[in-house]
């Protein structure tokens, strides 16, 4: 696909010169690291020498050691392999630490400290370190030791209870929404800590819990529940307080219609479905009344929409300034002209598969999309380069560590 992305040196990347040691795995931590990498930080992903990140075995296989799942949150990083259960592996982390600004991890509660990689332990070596620890639950609470899994958190925070149709059982989100939001919240916290450190010179301990972030995702639905004193009704593709708003079936396919204001509803009735009598009915004159009388209004609106072809409806809605759009399949959306035009999906070389699809960063600075500087790395592709560049390790030292099982090097049959 056409990249539409400037070369890496065409932009002044805001985090250029910042170094991040990413000890995390799976989703939330790696996504935090990817955000920082997208903004120009040098992110070194530390992986187990044999199995690497767990997600190298999740999703559809690409080459020998990558998958679609892994590739979705590890672009713009370098990968080195270290066995953090070994004293030699931990010693290398300590040797690297003075040259790094941020450490990210998602070890279970107490796990980092057991390895010698806790905040107080690393702070003694790097006093201005920004240390981001991601876990399932509050580290000071009774559930600190529980592992955090997105699906479990979606259930426990009520997110599944607000998703899906009213007549169906609770439903999880199509993607790991809590993991994703936790990764984004964590990146925001790291950015804030970096900004503050520029002024104060102080490091910071950041603790992020999936449960906390899952509660935040409930948003206005959660506040509705508190005000009502009970669970609000689920509306599926519809909106709890705006009517008509959701997915509708035209004569030849589905579309989204989002009538957000009374003025838009007036135009919808008069110029889209050609029924001015509906907006003249006092039961539907305002959105508050439409929401209150949705059970009588929506069957009429749904029936009217079915009478028109989708393209005609979209044209009329667009002419009236009413938000609308097609409902596309995932493959159709990813290969469509809007995605291609934006350079949102790019095809990059892969040493085994030949090529691989990579999402481009969603951020635009000064009118340009941030670049993909590195494809999601193969396991340990950067071990030799990073450790020689930052620690001046010789080939002999690296090969001795490889023989001890502390790390793997590119070309050894496992790190490619």
Explain what this protein looks like in three dimensions.
- This protein has 2 domains: 19-219 and 343-404, Crotonobetainyl-coa:carnitine coa-transferase, domain 1 (Rossmann fold, 3-Layer(aba) Sandwich); 245-328, formyl-coa transferase, domain 3.
- The strands form 5 sheets. A 6-stranded parallel β-sheet has the order 5-2-1-6-7-8, sandwiched between helices.
- The chain has helices at residues 28-38, 68-71, 87-96, 111-115, 119-123, 150-156, 177-200, 210-217, 219-228, 262-272, 276-280, 287-292, 294-305, 310-320, 330-335, 337-342, 383-391, 395-403; strands spanning 19-22, 42-47, 61-62, 66-67, 77-81, 102-105, 130-135, 204-209, 245-250, 253-258, 324-326, 345-350, 354-359, 364-365, 368-369.
- The chain is an alpha/beta fold.
- β14 (364-365) and β15 (368-369) form a beta hairpin.
How confident is the prediction overall: mean pLDDT? 94
What percentage of amino acids are in beta strands?
15-25%
Number of helices: 18
Q: Could you please say which CATH topology of the largest domain applies here?
A: Rossmann fold
Q: Specify Rg, calculated over alpha carbons.
A: 25 Å
Number of domains: 2
Structural class: alpha/beta
Question: Termini, distance in Å?
Answer: 25 Å
Global shape = elongated
Strand order of the largest sheet: 5-2-1-6-7-8
Largest sheet: 6 strands, parallel
Just give the CATH class of the largest domain: Alpha Beta
Quaternary structure:
single chain
Helix content: 25-40%
The residue ranges in which pLDDT falls below 50 over 5 or more consecutive positions are 1-6
CATH hierarchy: architecture of the largest domain = 3-Layer(aba) Sandwich
């Amino acid at each position: 696909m056409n990249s539409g992305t400037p070369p890496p040196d065409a932009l002044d990347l805001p985090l250029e010169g910042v170094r991040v040691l990413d000890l995390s795995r799976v989703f939330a931590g790696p996504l935090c690291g990817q955000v920082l990498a997208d903004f120009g930080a040098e992110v070194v992903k530390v992986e187990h020498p044999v199995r690497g990140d767990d997600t190298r075995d999740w999703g559809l296989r690409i080459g020998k050691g990558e998958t679609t799942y892994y590739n979705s949150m590890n672009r713009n990083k370098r990968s080195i392999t270290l066995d953090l259960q070994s004293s030699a592996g931990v010693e290398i982390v300590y040797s690297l630490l003075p040259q790094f600004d941020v450490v990210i991890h998602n070890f279970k509660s107490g796990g980092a400290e057991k390895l010698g990689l806790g905040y107080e332990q690393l702070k003694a070596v790097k006093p201005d370190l920004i240390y981001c620890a991601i876990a399932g639950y509050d580290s000071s609470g009774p559930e600190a030791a529980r592992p955090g899994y997105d699906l479990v958190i979606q259930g426990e925070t009520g997110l599944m209870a607000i998703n899906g149709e009213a007549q169906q059982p609770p439903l999880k989100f199509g993607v790991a929404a809590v993991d994703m939001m936790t990764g984004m919240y964590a990146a925001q916290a790291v950015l804030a800590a970096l900004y503050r450190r520029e002024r104060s010179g102080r490091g910071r301990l950041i603790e992020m819990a999936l449960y906390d972030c899952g509660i935040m995702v409930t948003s206005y639905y959660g506040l509705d529940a508190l005000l009502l004193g009970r669970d609000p009704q689920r509306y599926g593709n519809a909106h709890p307080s705006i009517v008509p708003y959701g997915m509708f079936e035209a004569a030849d396919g589905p579309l989204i219609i989002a009538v957000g204001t009374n003025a838009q509803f007036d135009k919808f009735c008069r110029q889209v479905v050609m029924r001015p009598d509906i907006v003249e009915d006092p039961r539907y004159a305002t959105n508050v009344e439409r929401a209150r009388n949705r059970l009588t209004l929506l069957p009429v609106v749904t029936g009217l929409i079915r009478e028109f072809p989708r393209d005609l409806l979209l044209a009329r809605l667009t002419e009236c300034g009413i938000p609308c759009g097609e409902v596309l399949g995932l493959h159709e959306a990813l290969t469509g002209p809007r995605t291609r035009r934006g350079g949102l999906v790019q095809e990059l070389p892969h040493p085994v598969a030949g090529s691989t699809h990579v999402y481009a960063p969603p951020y635009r600075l000064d009118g340009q999309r941030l670049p993909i500087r590195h494809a999601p790395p193969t396991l340990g592709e950067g071990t030799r380069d990073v450790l020689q560049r930052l620690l001046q390790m010789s080939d002999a030292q690296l090969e001795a560590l490889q023989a001890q099982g502390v790390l793997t090097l590119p070309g050894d049959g496992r790190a490619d």
